[in-house]
Design brief:
Elements (H helix, E strand, L loop, with lengths): L1 H27 L14 E7 L2 E7 L6 E4 L2 E6 L5 E2 L9 E2 L2 E8 L4 E8 L10 E9 L2 E9 L5 E9 L1 E2 L2 E5 L5 E7 L3 E7 L6 E7 L5 E9 L6 E11 L11
Antiparallel strand pairs: 1-2, 2-7, 3-4, 4-18, 5-6, 7-17, 8-14, 8-18, 9-10, 9-17, 10-11, 11-12, 11-13, 14-15, 15-16
Length: about 250
């Protein structure tokens, strides 16, 4: 009787071991670096602004931009943002209007712009952004943003499943130069006050897929409309020569 009861018990142990192995494999397959689930759908568009051809967008962004004398004006309606709350759904939003140009991430690229957000006295988190996006759970947002004290600062948000939120330097002037550069292995973000001397604020491994998008966005997460201006846009198939200096 003892031998007969051993056989099903052994089978159960083997089954449990297989289930545990399967769970471990599934867990390894859903690490932060492998988040690829797309929820929002990119829309097609056909706009050339600042010499850059924008072919994809989110939330009908092409209806919110115009260009005159080399200045791109981007109007963000109230309650528009792009963020996945790491704690709960209260702050999660996918309402931002974004224009994208498509890039081949197997090749180097550098994307830059001069940005002047529409800051207002009550425009909490108003910002102009540069964005790198694979899908809406894998992207980076590089913002010139108004904080809780009314200060204007450099902010980076990297989303891998959920979003982090990093406040960097406070900037006293109302415009800034931003640059995002990749050598295919590493991607880094820089800001400059004059477009000449660059400061690196973030660098990480480029684990984005081959098909990638870079874009511009104006956001107004809470109260009021944010009217941002973009100029001196550049998108090249070159990387910076020095990742620490951004030059």
């Amino acid at each position: 009787m003892a031998f007969k009861s051993f056989i099903p018990m052994a089978a159960l142990c083997i089954l449990a071991s297989c289930n545990n192995s399967s769970k471990q494999n599934n867990a390894e397959g859903t690490t932060a670096d492998s988040v690829q689930t797309s929820v929002m759908s990119f829309q097609d568009c056909d706009l050339t602004l600042g010499g850059i051809h924008f072919t994809k967008m989110l939330n009908g962004a092409d209806k919110h931009v115009s260009e005159k004398d080399g200045i791109i004006t981007f109007v963000a309606p109230e309650k528009t943002d792009l963020f996945i709350d790491p704690n709960d759904a209260k702050l999660t939003a996918n309402t931002a209007k974004v224009l994208f140009a498509e890039v081949d991430n197997t090749k180097p690229f550098t994307f830059s712009a001069r940005m002047k957000p529409g800051f207002t006295s009550d425009g909490l988190y108003h910002a102009a952004d540069l964005i790198v996006m694979a899908n809406d759970t894998l992207y980076q947002k590089f913002c010139f943003e108004q904080d809780e004290r009314g200060k204007h600062r450099v902010v980076t948000v990297r989303t891998v499943g959920t979003s982090d939120d990093n406040n960097h330097e406070v900037v006293s002037q109302d415009f800034i130069y931003y640059k995002i550069s990749s050598d295919t292995r590493t991607i880094a973000s820089y800001y400059s006050l004059d477009g000449k001397e660059w400061q690196m604020v973030r660098l990480y491994r480029n684990n984005y897929p081959k098909d990638l998008k870079v874009g511009i966005c104006s956001q107004a997460p809470q109260k009021g409309v944010c009217v941002s201006e973009f100029s001196e846009l550049s998108l090249s198939t070159e990387t910076v020569g020095d990742f620490r200096m951004g030059e």
